[in-house]
Amino acid sequence: GHGGGTAERQGPPAPERVLFPPTFSVSEIKNKQRRHFMFLRWKQQQRKEKLAAKKKLRKEREALGDKAPPKAIPKTIENQRVYDETTVDPDDEEVAFDEATDEFAPYFNRQTVPKILITTSDRPRGRTVRFCEQLATVIPNSHVYYRRGLALKRIIPQCIARDFTDLIVINEDRKIPNGLVLSHLPDGPTAHFRMSSVRLRKEIKRKGKEPTEHVPEVILNNFTTRLGHSVGRMFASLFPHDPQFIGRQVATFHNQRDYIFFRFHRYIFKSEKKVGIQELGPRFTLKLRSLQKGTFDSKFGEYEWIHKRREMDTSRRKFHL
C-alpha cells in the first residue's frame, strides 16, 4: 500500500562518523590516489603497532633479566624445509663408495688437473663476451673460445683430445647471458643451469682491483642432498686442488632454496678478529634445470634429473639440492 514505504525508511539515525566494516579492505577503494593514501596510512599504523609490541616485549625481557625466556628462532622457508630422504649423511658408506668411483674421483684423487674450455652460443655479443673473459680470470687454467658456427658435438671430441677436463657453455638471449651448461669430460655428467642476475665487474659497487693469478679457495655452502652433492662436486672440480692462500681469493657457490649464488671475493685479516672482504666479481645466480649422464647430447642424452616444475614444486619448502 501507500504507507509501506515510510515505515521502512524509519530506522535508527545514521551515525555521524562512518566506521569501516570489519572486513573492509583498502583495495576496495576505487580512487587510485585515495587508495594509495589510505594504504600508506594503514602501513604506518601497522608499523606503529609492531614497534609498540617490540618495545613492550623488550621492557618485559629487561624486567625479567636473566629469567627471560630464550629468543625464538624466526621461521624461514629455509629452516622449515620439507625433509628430503636423499640428504647426505657424511658417514654414509654408500655415498663414500659413490664418491670414490664417480666421474670426479680422478680429480679428487689428484690424478687429473682441471683444464677448462669456456665457450659461448654461436656468435656471442658484447656482454656475454665480457662475462666469459671475467669468468676465465676466476677459474684458473681456463681458455675462452668464441664459437663461429661449430656444433658442440664437434667441439667435445676436440676438447677431449686436448686434455680439457670440463666444458662450460654460456648461452645468451637478446645479448644477455641466460644459461650455463657444464659438461665434465670425457664421460660427463652434464648440467644445464638457467642463469640470471649477472653482474659484470664494473657493475659491482665498491669492487676490488682485478683478481690475481692465484688459485682461489672454493666454498660450497648448503649442497645437502645426493643431487646437491653431485652438483657441488662438479663445481669443486673446476678449480685446482691446492688453493694459494697468499692470493686470499675465494670463490663461493652458495645454495639457497635451490638457487646457487656465485660470488668472488678477496679477503684480508685486519686483526685477529676483523676480516675485510672486497667483492671482485663477476657474480651470477644459477638454477639447475637438468643433470644428464655422459657429455652434452640433446637428442639421446640419458637424464639423471630434470626439473619438472608442476610435479616437483608441490610445496614452497621443498628443495632438491
Automatic annotation (TrEMBL):
Indicate the principal place this protein occupies in or around the cell.
nucleus
Query: What Gene Ontology cellular component terms go with this record?
Result: nucleolus; preribosome, large subunit precursor
rRNA processing among keywords: yes
**Where is the segment annotated Disordered?**
1-20
Record localization: Nucleus, Nucleolus
Q: Which Pfam families match?
A: Brix
**Mind listing the GO biological process terms from this record?**
maturation of 5.8S rRNA; maturation of LSU-rRNA
Concerning PROSITE patterns, the annotation shows:
BRIX
- What does the UniProt keyword field contain? Ribosome biogenesis, rRNA processing
Keyword Acyltransferase among UniProt keywords: no
The molecular function terms in GO held by this entry are: rRNA primary transcript binding
Q: Where does the chain cross the membrane? A: none
Q: Where is the Brix domain?
A: 114-297
Q: What InterPro entries does this protein's entry cite?
A: Brix, IMP4/RPF1
Q: What does this protein do?
A: May be required for ribosome biogenesis.
Q: Know the name of this protein?
A: Ribosome production factor 1
Lineage of this protein's species? Eukaryota, Metazoa, Chordata, Craniata, Vertebrata
